[in-house]
Specification:
This protein is of the alpha+beta class. The protein folds into two domains: 67 residues; 111 residues, Rieske [2Fe-2S] iron-sulphur domain (Rieske Iron-sulfur Protein, 3-layer Sandwich). 19% of the residues lie in helices and 26% in strands. It has one helix and eleven strands. The strands form three sheets. The chain has a four-stranded antiparallel beta sheet with strand order 2-3-4-9, with no helix packed on it. β7 and β8 form a beta hairpin. The N terminus and C terminus are likely disordered. Bound molecules: FE2/S2 (inorganic) cluster.
Length: 197
């Protein structure tokens, strides 16, 4: 009896399916049929594990913020130098570090102000932050002006607005002398000033 070629040799009965079939042929080999299911399960587990890890990493800052102390907003006296460091009628930038910064503050813990010595015992200080949207202003000695580079705000030597979008003068900061040292009452975040009338 002759047979058609269906996987065997001409004239021979077709080959029997081998055990360990890789699936897709419709055979009922249990070992071969179980492998795709296991692979799907394995890939599923990797997906779940990756999503869980990503959620955990994303949640760390949130959990840290919940348990960390809130950012401080009250003003504190900051030592900026000895009285003899400053010349009368000279406006200079003084820098200081927030005394109790939040752990995540980084460069934001650095602060600054402009200080002018009026006479032997009197000083005037201005916040460095423009009252428009908070960019630091620069003192131009030759023009006797504070210039804001962000949107062209200009303040005179007393901090009053003379040009640009700011509506309020530069914020004045209290000063005091203690044992020959100059201190400024400064806040870690900019404070707003009064509106221009
Ligand atoms: S922030 Fe100073 S002019 Fe806008």
């Amino acid at each position: 009896m002759l047979y058609r070629v269906t996987g065997g040799r001409l004239g021979q009965p077709p080959d029997k399916p081998k055990s360990g079939c890789s699936g897709g042929c419709g055979c009922s080999d249990s070992a071969g049929g179980a492998r795709p299911t296991s692979r799907r399960e394995f890939l599923g587990l990797i997906g779940v594990g990756t999503a869980g890890l990503a959620a955990m990493v994303a949640g760390i800052p949130i959990i840290g913020a919940l348990f960390s102390k809130p950012a401080r907003s009250e003003q504190v006296w900051q030592l900026v130098g000895s009285i003899d460091d400053f010349e009368i009628d000279e406006t200079v930038k003084v820098e200081f570090i927030d005394d109790d910064p939040a752990p995540w503050a980084g460069p934001a813990a650095r602060n600054a102000a402009y200080l002018r010595r009026i006479d032997d015992e009197e000083f005037t200080a201005f916040s460095i932050y423009c009252t428009h949207v908070g960019c630091p202003v620069a003192w131009r000695e030759g023009a006797s002006l504070f210039i804001c580079p962000c949107h062209g705000g200009v303040f005179d030597r007393e901090g009053e607005v003379v040009a640009g979008p700011p509506e309020t003068p530069l914020v004045r900061l209290d000063t005091r002398l203690r044992d020959g040292q100059v201190e400024i009452l400064a806040a870690p975040v900019p404070v707003t000033g009064r509106r221009r009338s």
